[in-house]
Task: inverse folding
């Protein structure tokens, strides 16, 4: 959405995006078919992302702990601050924003190319001609599935990252087990978790709806599907960062 | 019967279809012919409402499609079967699931009845033993047939085909043409077919409209087409050496019934 030739173009795209969303959230034809689709998407968008989330969580947690240890390497600063810093950065930023940026790449490109391919091979036309609301059929289950499963992924990412941090800190002799765990618990605010989950809901909606939009309006050939998928990833990432800033202002400041 | 009155369609200022009027008849194979890029696909998609027309009227047995409310439009769409240029099969579903799909969405049948109905349609298009395969695993001709089976599964009143023969060898193309004609007569559908294949024209051209640069330049039957007096149409038909010879040696070929008026037409 940011790459536009003129202001008019941006208005056109934003208008078309909201139009598509309105179409996507109209009453489904057969309820049970949509339920089945939501489960399928939970698997494809969520469960199939578990691997990548585990890997990045371990390394992010470990890295944060090492950095915290190095920058607090002074006898005046208590060691438990390492645990505290790790928890704060993982909970507030990493498990929501960074994770969703990664998912924007994985899930967003997948959605845009799937829907884009259906568009250029006339499968979307085929749905429409049967009388199926193609926008609702293709987009709504993805949005609902992502908004349902992403928060669980976030909670999981928090635990894995903090475990990764423990491994790096304790086994690397940077902090004692007791100090690290004490740091994790100190000044804990439940609202931080709520804040990060609220962000994830916005990000999940952004990734799925923006990527669906670019796929749905792909026009041309295979090259265009590739372009749609690139635009989907770039623009959802940018929107995620802007939303991150706005929501932080709104909820924390 | 589908009546088309003065329809036009443009895309962001570019006029693609201009002032086309005609009637597509029930129980007959109506052909839209024209060069690549002349606007056939756009015309077909405008007829079925996939493109919104700028001007004009399209009447499905008297019902003015473009003026209908969303709900009534949807009801007409359920009476329409369409086969797209590339088949447009759902590639994550098997052949059988593809044909069953419209039943899943719109019928009250139970699973057994749906499978039965889908198998019946697959048999109708002479496809068997492939129902568990995926579209990518079968040949182009089989994909086309699957698409036809899917298009007829809900007993449509109107059938639309966008280049049903493209990418097929002449023999398979002929089989598909015959199949379309049989289905049209058997179920009394109003069938509209886009093609640039002159074999199809001579085989099933009961009613033909010729589109030239988005306008209707000629209208008639396969019997009139060889000796028509439309310059653009002649350029189109007699582009190939074969059809030039057909015209020259018309008498030699005159024992071929295809090029002569049918008995019943006399
Ligand atoms: N969605 C669209 N937006 C803009 N222009 C379009 C669109 N669809 C078609 N056109 C233009 O309309 C013209 C007619 O295209 P159309 O696909 O109808 O040709 P055709 O007669 O079906 O050709 P072919 O035999 O190759 O399929 C082309 O110039 C095409 O670029
Ligand atoms: Mg075409």
Result:
């Amino acid at each position: 959405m940011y790459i536009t030739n003129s202001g008019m173009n941006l208005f056109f795209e934003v208008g078309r995006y909201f139009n598509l969303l309105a179409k996507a959230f109209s009453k489904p034809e057969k309820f049970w078919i949509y339920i089945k689709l939501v489960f399928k998407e939970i698997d494809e968008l969520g469960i199939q992302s578990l691997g990548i989330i585990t890997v990045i969580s371990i390394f992010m947690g470990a890295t944060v702990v090492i950095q915290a240890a190095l920058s607090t390497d002074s006898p005046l600063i208590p060691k438990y601050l390492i645990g505290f810093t790790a928890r704060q950065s993982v909970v507030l930023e990493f498990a929501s924003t960074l994770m969703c940026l990664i998912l924007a790449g994985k899930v967003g490109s997948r959605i845009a190319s799937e829907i884009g391919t259906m568009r250029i091979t006339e499968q979307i036309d085929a749905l429409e001609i049967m009388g199926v609301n193609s926008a609702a059929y293709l987009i709504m289950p993805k949005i609902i599935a992502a908004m349902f499963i992403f928060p669980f992924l976030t909670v999981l990412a928090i635990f894995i990252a903090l475990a990764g941090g423990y491994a790096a800190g304790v086994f690397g002799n940077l902090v004692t087990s007791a100090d690290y765990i004490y740091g994790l618990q100190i000044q804990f605010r439940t609202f931080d978790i709520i804040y990060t989950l609220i962000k994830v809901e916005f990000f999940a909606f952004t990734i799925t709806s923006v990527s669906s939009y670019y796929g749905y309006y792909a026009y041309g050939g295979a090259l265009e599907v590739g372009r749609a998928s690139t635009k989907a990833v770039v623009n959802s990432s940018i929107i995620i960062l802007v939303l991150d800033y706005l929501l932080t202002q709104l909820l924390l400041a | 019967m589908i009546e088309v009155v003065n329809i036009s369609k443009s895309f962001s200022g570019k006029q693609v279809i201009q002032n086309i009027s005609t009637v597509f008849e029930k129980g007959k194979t109506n052909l839209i012919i024209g060069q690549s890029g002349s606007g056939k696909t756009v015309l077909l998609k405008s007829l079925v409402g996939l493109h919104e027309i700028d001007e004009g009227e399209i009447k499905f047995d008297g019902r003015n499609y473009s003026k209908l409310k969303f709900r009534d439009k949807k009801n007409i769409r359920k009476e329409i079967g369409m086969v797209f240029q590339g088949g447009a099969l759902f590639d994550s579903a098997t052949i059988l699931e593809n044909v069953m799909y419209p039943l899943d969405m719109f019928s009250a049948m139970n699973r057994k009845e749906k499978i039965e109905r889908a198998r019946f349609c697959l048999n109708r298009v002479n496809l068997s033993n492939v129902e568990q395969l995926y579209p990518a695993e079968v040949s182009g001709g089989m994909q086309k047939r699957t698409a036809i089976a899917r298009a007829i599964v809900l007993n449509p009143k109107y059938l639309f085909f966008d280049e049903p023969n493209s990418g097929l060898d002449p023999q398979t193309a002929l089989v598909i043409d015959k199949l379309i004609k049989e289905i049209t007569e058997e179920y009394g559908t109003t069938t509209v077919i886009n093609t640039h294949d002159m074999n199809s024209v001579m085989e099933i051209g009961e009613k033909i409209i010729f589109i030239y640069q988005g306008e209707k330049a000629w209208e008639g039957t396969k019997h009139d087409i060889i000796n028509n007096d439309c310059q653009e149409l002649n350029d189109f038909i007699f582009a190939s050496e074969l059809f030039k010879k057909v015209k020259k040696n018309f008498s030699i070929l005159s024992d071929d019934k295809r090029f002569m008026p049918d008995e019943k037409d006399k």
Observations:
- Chain B is about 40% helix and 25% strand.
- Residues 2-79+156-219 of chain B form a domain with the Rossmann fold fold (CATH 3.40.50.300).
